Each structure stands twice: as C-alpha cells, then as structure tokens.
Amino acid sequence: MSEEKSKPVPRPGILDIAAYVPGKEHAPGVARVYKLSSNETPLGASPKAIEAFREAVGNLERYPDGQAIELRESIAAVHGLNPANIMCGNGSDELLGLLCHVYLGTGDEAIITEHGFLVYKIQIMGAGATPVVVKEKDETVDVDAILAAVTPKTKMVFIANPGNPTGTYVPVCEIRRLHASLPKNVVLVLDAAYAEYVRRNDYEAGIEIVSSNPNVVMTRTFSKVYGLAALRVGWMYAPADIIDAVNRVRGPFNMNSAAISAGAAAIRDQAFVQEAVAFNQMWIEKMTVALEAVGLKVTPSVTNFVLIHFPDVDGKRAPEADAFLTSRGYILRAVKGYGFANALRMSIGPDEANRGVIEALSEFVGRKS
Ligand SMILES: *Cc1c(COP(=O)(O)O)cnc(C)c1O
After folding, report:
1. What's this model's pTM, rounded to 2 decimal places?
2. Which of 106, 179, 345, 349 could cross-link 353 (Cys pair, CB 3.0–4.6 Å)?
3. Are 231 and 262 contained in the same domain?
4. CATH code of the domain covering residue 343
5. Number of the ligand 1 atom closest to the C-alpha atom of 222
6. Which residue's alpha carbon is nearest to atom 10 within ligand 1?
7. Residue at which a domain ends, from 219, 250, 269
8. Per residue in 238-274, pLDDT tens?
9. Is there a contact between 267 and 45 (Cβ–Cβ < 8 Å)?
10. Which domain holds residue 339?
C-alpha cells in the first residue's frame, strides 16, 4: 500500500513553478496614471469591435460557437489561410498551454531562450517537462545556441519573434535554418504576438514555414495591436495533425461569444490596424532617439515597446528609475525576472505619456544621486 498523505499533493514539479507576475497597474497617490507596463495599445479597440461586443450582450444565455467559425473564417480571409488550420484560444496563452499539454510529458525537454516570455517556462513545467534555457546573443535569439541544446529528449522549441521584453527579431532565413536542423519530431513554436508592428523586409511571422512543414506552429494574439487584451483572444496556425491533437484536449467552449464577435470585427478592420501601426512606428523611433539623447541605452525595437537600460551607478539604476517614474504616474515594467535587473520595459503609450516619460527620465538621469 502506498504511503498515506494528510492532504492533496500536486504532481511533482508543480510547486517549483514561479507564478506569473503581471505588470503593475497602480501608482498610489498619483492623480493621472499611465500604464505602460503590459504592451497594450494606447488607441483602444476598433469601434467596429466595440459595437460587436455590445451586440453580443443580447445572447448571454446561449453557449458560444465551440468552433469559433466566424472568427476563424475572418482570420483566414485576412491572412489568406485555410480556416481548418486555425484554432482560437482564450488568449494565445491558452494555446501555448494546450500545446505543452499535448506534446510534453515527464522526462521531456523543451528549449526556451534566456530572455524568452515567462509563460513558456510555466506551461512546460506544468506539463511535467524540463525547460532548457539557452543564451541569447546581443539580446536576440541565437539559433546556434538552440541547436547546440537539442538532445534526444527535446520535444519543443519556443521562440518569441519578435522577442519580449527585448523587442528584437530573428530574420526569416535564420528561422528556416533553425527549422532545417531540428529533428522532425520537435515542435517549433513561433510566437508572433507583435508581428503586426514589424516593418522589416527580412521578417516573417511564420505563415510560410507552417504551411510547408508538419512540425511548426505560429501563435498570434488580439491583445496587442488589436486592443482586445481584456477579452482574451488568441489564435494559432498549425498543420492539420497538430490542430487535431490539440482539439481533443481543448475546452469545448474555450472562446466566449463576445470574444468571437469582437475579434472577427477587429480583424476585418485592417484600416484601424494600419493607423495603430503608423502611430507606433512614429513613436518607437522618436522614443529611441530621445532616450539615447538623454544618455540611456535602448535596445533597438521592432515592436510597440522599448527596453531601456540604466547606468550602473548608485541611485541611477532601474529600481530607482522605476520608483521615480511611478511617483510621476508612469508605470513601466520591471524585467528582472527576464534577466534584466538594470532595465525597464516601456510600452508606447499616448502622446502625452511618451513625452512625459522622456521628460521624467531626462530629469532622473540629470538628477544628483
Ligand atoms: C503579450 C504576449 C502574448 C499574448 O498573450 P495573450 O494570451 O494572447 O494575451 C504572447 N506572447 C508574447 C511574447 C507576448 O508578449
């Protein structure tokens, strides 16, 4: 007989997981607060998405469409894909978790990178597998380091492209080189949460690579440029066998009706997306130039956020900068958990917030320590 326990005990490894800590939201005692800590858009959602959300209120007693057909067909139409290869999720976080649940188990390894998104590690460990962390190079995913870490136990590789919190990206030729050298049984997950923002000719979110291979998945989100973070809408584009496997374990009604309708309306409003991207492009350049002029180092970003590095000088480090900015009502993201103890991540906000951060940081840097 097995030893009796006095209370329920989670599977081995579960209590080793460090729970995800979201970006701060509050600045106590400050009248006007700008939350620049979670890479949300300052432009809100498309008015058409908001209208669709309102309409969903009329049918609250009915179960949602478990296949999310309206949303999948809208995504497929905009991106030129087969809806059968699209699965939607309660945020892309849900899909990342389901993929781990399906492809990982005890004794398996999954490769993540030094500054990669913390959700991967949580989901890998949640599935009972071992996260293998590889170094990045110049704050960018290093394909050779990933390949060097592959073992017979490797079942998945996770890359955020562009990366969060770095804002850097891996060109498509490098992604192809990585894929070509991975064993055929390894699932390569390309998390393209910020793809809409990227303006680089050598970048691809992953659609072509997924289309022509059985072991690559691309995940996308409506939480960033589409401004629907509150509704939790994500999707993945994957080969038929992967969709089939994940479909067997996903909750039958994992998407709510409001999310399905608002998401479908949002993706059909590409004019709104273009405006948001143009606004961001203008500010990401301005912000980088202005912060460098103040004497701070900024990692070159293709996204809607910048990683700002502080000097290694008493009183001028990231924690002090964080406190200073918070006292002015600007909430940035501390990124120690991502391996950057002396940096803060700032999402591009509305004009007045971006100007305010530049002003506050020039004062902070010039301040006597
Ligand atoms: C914001 C973000 C996501 C999106 O997650 P959702 O669950 O869709 O809100 C996914 N990956 C990365 C790297 C992100 O920064």
Report:
1. 0.96
2. 349
3. yes
4. 3.90.1150.10
5. 8
6. 193
7. 269
8. 999 999 999 999 999 999 999 999 999 999 999 999 9
9. no
10. 3-44+271-366
